[in-house]
């Protein structure tokens, strides 16, 4: 990964990185260390502070379902800019004590805008990245999740000492800086996307079976990481009574892990491929989530924070990459939006359910083994995905009985390479060979709708 990144790829990275910084790193995870402070300083009781986190998850759900169509309507660049502005506004407009409904609305807006950024930002960045730079760009984009966590966690002890209002304003300022950098990257992108050398079946065709298993597994991941990403700081502060500063340090450790997660994911892919790397990530996260059940020592809690933090963006980048490998770059935004929507559904339901459980039981402790069980189920789904088809059902050959053996052999090669699955099986053999050679030539660049 020591190759040079050209100017277009660098601009695409700037867009994707700031989209993930704002999409989850700040809009979602910067709120987690605020939960105990909101109750301590009398803004909301603990249960209502937790429900504000759940409101963010519901917004993420709505954003995930609307992101693809919204970007087709407004254009990807304009959609990204609007979403970035909404994330910044969600912090700035909560800088003074107000009614629960006001805060719930802006936490909802932050979640919705964050989901839009997570769907549209990385997909746009990959469309502007050539094949040579795509592996490193796809990895580095999701480092923004950890960078957002680390920035907020590092500043949080000092900001909270100045008061909650200053903290909200500072987070809004950070969001504005990230939005400005993202806008600069968008402005420097060329008028056309990078031409691609491969294509897949039409976007309206049915999806491969493996895609649905990946989406299901990604949903279980959404349920699995709720305790660490919403309740972790509050759990450490009030239930384990390690102190707010020590709990914020654990959040910073989680952010440090999140910074390195995509790098670890890239190494796992290099040594085992996308599918095995994803299984390994699920296994590591399952073990990390269950650590607080076994031990409350600071060393083990730190290990749990680091590994969960690393696997949050690690699983995101591996899931995105695995889907891109199966369906291709052109269909990536559609399929990645589908996976994000499934993630958001489970995340919202499980977030509300776990908040309600805490409201009734008064303890977060039982949520950790439950979350680990969800991760284990997701790991099994990923493992089973290697045994099912990675080719859409309608891309398979309709009738091999009427074809000669040479064409049958070529069709078997097509099934092994989904990018060639759209070739017509009824063409003569010589015609098919010509078509197969032509399919490796660059296609005409597509003009972005928002140019």
Any chance you could write out the topology, listing elements then pairs?
Elements: H1 7-26, H2 35-40, H3 46-74, H4 76-92, H5 100-127, H6 134-141, H7 143-162, H8 164-188, H9 209-224, H10 226-239, H11 244-294, H12 298-327, H13 332-361, H14 367-385, H15 405-416, H16 429-438
Helix pairs in contact: 1-4, 1-5, 1-6, 1-7, 1-8, 3-4, 3-5, 3-13, 4-5, 4-8, 5-13, 6-11, 7-8, 7-11, 9-12, 9-13, 9-14, 10-11, 11-12, 11-14
Summarize the structure in words:
The protein is an all-alpha fold. The chain has 16 helices and no strands. The protein has helices at 7-26, 35-40, 46-74, 76-92, 100-127, 134-141, 143-162, 164-188, 209-224, 226-239, 244-294, 298-327, 332-361, 367-385, 405-416, 429-438. The longest helix has 51 residues, at 244-294. The chain is globular. The two termini are 31 Å apart.
What would the keywords be for this entry?
451 residues, mainly alpha, disordered C terminus, 16 helices, single chain, 0% strand
Structure summary:
With 451 residues, this protein is mainly alpha-helical.
Q: The biggest beta sheet, please?
A: none
Element order: H for helix, E for strand: HHHHHHHHHHHHHHHH
Counted by DSSP, the helix tally is 16
Based on Cα principal axes, name the global outline.
globular
N- to C-terminal distance? 31 Å
User: What does the average pLDDT come to?
Assistant: 79
Which structural class do the helices and strands define? mainly alpha
Strand content: under 5%
Low-confidence stretches: 196-204, 393-451
Radius of gyration: 23 Å
Helical fraction equals over 70%
Strands, count:
0
């Amino acid at each position: 990964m020591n190759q040079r990144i050209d100017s277009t790829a660098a601009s695409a990275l700037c867009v994707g990185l700031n989209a993930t910084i704002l999409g989850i790193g700040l809009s979602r995870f910067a709120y987690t260390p605020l939960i105990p402070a909101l109750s301590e300083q009398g803004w909301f009781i603990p249960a209502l502070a937790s429900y504000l986190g759940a409101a963010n998850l519901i917004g993420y759900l709505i954003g995930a379902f609307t992101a693809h169509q919204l970007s087709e309507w407004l254009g990807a660049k304009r959609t990204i800019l609007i979403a970035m502005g909404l994330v910044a506004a969600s912090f700035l407009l909560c800088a003074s004590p107000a009614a629960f409904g006001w805060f719930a609305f802006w936490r909802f807006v932050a979640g919705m805008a964050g989901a839009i950024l997570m769907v549209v930002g990385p997909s746009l960045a990959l469309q502007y990245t050539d094949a040579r730079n795509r592996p490193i760009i796809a990895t580095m984009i999701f480092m923004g999740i950890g960078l957002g966590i680390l920035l907020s966690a590092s500043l949080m002890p000092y900001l909270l000492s100045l008061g909650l209002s200053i903290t909200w304003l500072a987070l809004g300022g950070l969001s504005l800086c990230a939005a400005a950098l993202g806008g600069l990257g968008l402005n420097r992108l060329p008028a056309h996307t990078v031409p691609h050398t491969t294509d897949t079946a039409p976007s309206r065709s049915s999806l491969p079976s493996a895609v649905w298993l990946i989406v299901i597994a990604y949903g279980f991941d959404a349920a699995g990481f709720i305790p660490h990403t919403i309740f972790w700081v509050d759990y450490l502060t009030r239930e384990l009574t390690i102190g707010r500063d020590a709990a914020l340090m654990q959040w910073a450790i989680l952010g440090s892990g999140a910074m390195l997660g995509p790098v670890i994911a890239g190494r796992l892919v290099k040594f085992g491929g996308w599918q095995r790397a994803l299984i390994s990530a699920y296994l590591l996260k399952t073990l990390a989530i269950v650590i607080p059940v076994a031990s409350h020592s600071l060393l083990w809690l730190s290990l749990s924070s680091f590994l969960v933090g690393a696997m949050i963006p690690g699983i995101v980048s591996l899931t995105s990459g695995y889907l891109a490998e199966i369906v291709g770059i052109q269909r990536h935004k559609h399929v990645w939006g589908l996976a994000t929507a499934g993630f958001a559904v489970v995340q919202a339901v499980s977030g509300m359910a776990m908040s309600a459980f805490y409201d009734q039981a008064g303890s977060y402790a039982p949520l950790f083994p439950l979350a680990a069980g969800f991760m284990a189920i997701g790991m099994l789904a990923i493992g089973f995905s290697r045994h099912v088809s990675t080719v859409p059902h309608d891309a398979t050959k309709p009738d091999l009985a009427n074809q000669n053996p040479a064409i049958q052999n070529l069709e078997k090669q097509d099934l092994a390479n989904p990018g060639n699955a759209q070739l017509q099986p009824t063409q003569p053999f010589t015609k098919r060979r010509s078509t197969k050679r032509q399919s490796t030539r660059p296609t005409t660049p597509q003009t972005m709708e928002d140019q």
